[in-house]
C-alpha cells in the first residue's frame, strides 16, 4: 500500500464524519426552527378550546374539557361567518381573475415577439417594484366615481390587478423555457392557437400556476389595507378587518379571540398542506428541465 493511499483513507473518513455531523446539526436547527414557528399556532389552537375562566387562571395550560362552543359563538355572535364568506368570495374570485389575465399575458410575452413586447413586459414588471398602496388616493377617487366604494367587486378588481405583475413575472419565465419544437409539432398536426395554448402549453406550466395562485391567495387573504380604506359597511368586512372590529367588541373574551384567530388561520394552513407538492414542483421546475 502506498503512502498516498494510507493517508487518503483517514481523510475520507474524516470528511464523511464531518458531513454526517453537519447533517445532524442542520436537522437540529430545522426542527428547532419548526418548533419555534409552530408554538404560537399550537398555543392559539389549544387556548381556543378552553373556557374563559380557565384560560385566565392558567394561560399556558391544557383544556380540561374542550370547549368547541367558542367556535360556534365566534361564528354566529361575532359574525365571523359573514366575514369568512366575504373573504372567500373576494380572495378566490380575485385569484382566479388575476391568474387568468397573468397566464394570457405571460403566454403572449413569453412565446411571441411583437413590436413593443419588451416595453410592455417592463411596464408590467414595474408593478413588482412600485407598491400598489402608493396609488390608494387615485384608486379611492376612481372607485368613488364608478360607484365601487363599499363593494366587494371593487376589492376583487384591485386584488386581481395587484397580482398580475407577479403572475406575469413567474409564468413568462416558464413559458420561455418550453421547447419551441412543441409548438411547431402541434401546428404541423393541425392544432390552432387556442388548442396549442389550452391543451399543450397550459398543462406544462401547471406547477407554476399553482405557485402563483397559492402566493396570491395568502397575500390577499391576509390583506388589511384595502378593505379598511375601500369598505365602510361592516357586513362587507373581510376577515382581517373583521378581526379588528371583533377585538373592539370582544377584546375581554380571550377564548373567543383565539377561536376567531383559528378560523382566520386554518384555511391558509390547510391550503399550504394540500398545495406544498405543487409549490415545490413549481419552484424547482426550472432547475429540473
From TrEMBL:
It comes from the Bacteria. SUPFAM superfamilies: MetI-like. One of its GO terms (biological process) is transmembrane transport. It is a multi-pass membrane protein. Keywords: Cell membrane, Membrane, Transmembrane, Transmembrane helix, Transport. It is found in: Cell membrane. Residues 84-275 form the ABC transmembrane type-1 domain. Pfam families: BPD_transp_1 (PF00528). GO terms for cellular component: plasma membrane. The chain crosses the membrane at residues 21-46, 83-109, 121-143, 155-175, 196-218, 256-275. PANTHER family: ABC TRANSPORTER PERMEASE PROTEIN MG189-RELATED, ABC TRANSPORTER PERMEASE PROTEIN MG189-RELATED-RELATED. Belongs to the binding-protein-dependent transport system permease family. This is Carbohydrate ABC transporter permease. It comes from Marinitenerispora sediminis. The lineage of its organism: Bacteria, Bacillati, Actinomycetota, Actinomycetes, Streptosporangiales.
Amino acid at each position: 500500500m502506498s503512502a498516498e493511499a494510507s493517508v487518503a483513507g483517514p481523510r475520507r473518513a474524516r470528511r464523511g464524519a464531518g458531513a454526517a455531523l453537519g447533517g445532524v446539526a442542520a436537522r437540529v436547527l430545522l426542527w428547532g426552527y419548526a418548533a419555534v414557528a409552530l408554538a404560537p399556532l399550537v398555543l392559539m389552537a389549544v387556548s381556543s378550546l378552553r373556557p374563559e375562566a380557565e384560560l385566565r387562571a392558567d394561560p399556558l395550560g391544557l383544556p380540561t374539557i374542550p370547549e368547541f362552543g367558542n367556535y360556534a359563538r365566534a361564528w354566529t355572535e361575532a359574525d365571523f361567518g359573514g366575514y369568512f364568506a366575504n373573504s372567500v368570495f373576494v380572495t378566490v374570485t380575485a385569484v382566479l381573475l388575476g391568474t387568468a389575465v397573468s397566464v394570457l399575458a405571460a403566454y403572449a410575452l413569453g412565446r411571441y415577439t411583437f413590436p413593443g413586447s419588451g416595453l410592455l413586459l417592463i411596464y408590467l414588471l414595474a408593478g413588482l417594484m412600485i407598491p400598489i398602496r402608493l396609488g390608494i388616493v387615485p384608486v379611492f377617487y376612481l372607485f368613488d366615481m364608478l360607484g365601487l366604494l363599499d363593494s366587494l367587486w371593487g376589492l376583487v378588481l384591485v386584488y386581481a390587478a395587484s397580482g398580475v405583475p407577479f403572475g406575469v413575472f413567474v409564468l413568462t419565465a416558464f413559458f420561455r423555457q418550453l421547447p419551441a419544437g412543441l409548438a411547431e409539432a402541434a401546428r404541423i398536426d393541425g392544432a390552432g392557437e387556442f388548442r396549442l395554448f389550452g391543451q399543450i402549453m397550459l398543462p406544462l406550466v401547471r406547477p407554476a400556476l399553482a405557485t402563483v395562485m397559492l402566493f396570491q391567495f395568502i397575500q390577499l387573504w391576509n390583506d388589511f389595507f384595502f378593505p379598511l380604506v375601500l369598505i365602510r359597511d361592516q357586513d362587507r368586512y373581510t376577515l382581517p378587518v373583521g378581526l379588528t372590529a371583533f377585538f373592539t367588541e370582544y377584546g375581554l373574551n380571550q377564548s373567543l379571540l383565539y377561536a376567531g384567530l383559528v378560523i382566520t388561520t386554518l384555511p391558509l394552513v390547510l391550503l399550504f398542506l394540500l398545495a406544498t407538492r405543487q409549490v415545490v414542483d413549481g419552484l424547482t421546475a426550472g432547475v429540473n428541465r
